[in-house]
Design brief:
The protein is mainly α. The protein has helices spanning 2-40, 46-71, 73-79, 85-114, 123-130, 134-165, 170-184, 191-208, 212-236. 24% of the residues are buried.
Length: 239
């Protein structure tokens, strides 16, 4: 019995460091791509530049999710054992959180303004307002609203958080997962909002044990943010 428990602990230890290694590779590839593109592949066409960046992000996240699926198939089955109805609960939670997220965005704006910085909007908003191709806008919309929430919740909540939790306490694991998630998005001016959102996503996953709940909330957050920018673009005809 004791030998079996030691083997199980060893297996968990391998999984923990395995997930950390995969996440480090994910962040490393993202940083390398940004550096190489900026240094050696300066594309004058803005739409084309955005397209290549989006494609790279999509394939990196897809590769990581597929790798995790084939490496830990039983864990994937565990993650999606709950009903899809949790997705709609996540959407509902988003509507309840709108006042809090809006307040944090305002606080963040005022803080950076007070420190002498000119706060910039989230990068995706800037991209949407400058992109001219309707097909690229549709692709970005699908990537941001449907694929990103699904991939990122599997990676960060489904694997990273659970791996960290096997080594540390729940509050610490929620904090670390959210910190890594926020740093991964490298959005300094909306860092507080992303960090808080991640805290809530991870907490809800811990409480419900249903991955569809954070996926639903993440989807709603991205969907309505995208929709708002689309409306701005169409009303003011920004291109």
């Amino acid at each position: 019995m004791r030998r079996q428990r030691l083997l199980e602990n060893r297996e968990l230890e391998i999984e923990f460091f395995h997930i950390i290694f995969i996440l480090v590779i994910l962040i490393f590839l993202s940083i390398c791509f940004s550096f190489i593109k900026a240094k050696f592949f300066k594309i004058s066409n803005f739409d084309l530049d955005v397209f290549f960046s989006a494609i790279f992000t999509f394939f990196v996240e897809l590769f990581v999710v597929l790798y995790l699926f084939f490496r830990f198939p039983n864990h994937f089955l565990f993650l999606f054992k709950n009903k899809f109805s949790g997705f709609f609960k996540g959407v509902l939670y988003y509507f309840l959180l709108i006042p809090l997220l809006s307040f944090l965005t305002l606080i963040s704006f005022l803080f950076f303004k007070k420190c002498g910085f000119e706060p910039m909007p989230q990068e995706l908003i800037f991209i949407y307002l400058k992109v001219k191709s309707i097909y690229l806008l549709i692709f970005l919309f699908i990537l941001s609203c449907f694929l990103a929430p699904f991939f990122e919740e599997i990676i960060f909540r489904g694997f990273l958080y659970i791996s960290i939790k096997k080594k540390f306490s729940v509050p610490f694991s929620i904090f670390i997962t959210s910190l890594i998630f926020s740093l991964f998005h490298h959005e300094i001016f909306v860092f507080i909002g992303i960090f808080t959102l991640s805290l809530i996503l991870t907490y809800l996953f811990e409480k419900t044990q249903n991955i569809w709940v954070p996926i639903g909330l993440h989807f709603a957050n991205n969907f309505f943010a995208n929709l708002f920018v689309f409306l701005l673009k169409s009303i003011y005809k920004i291109s």
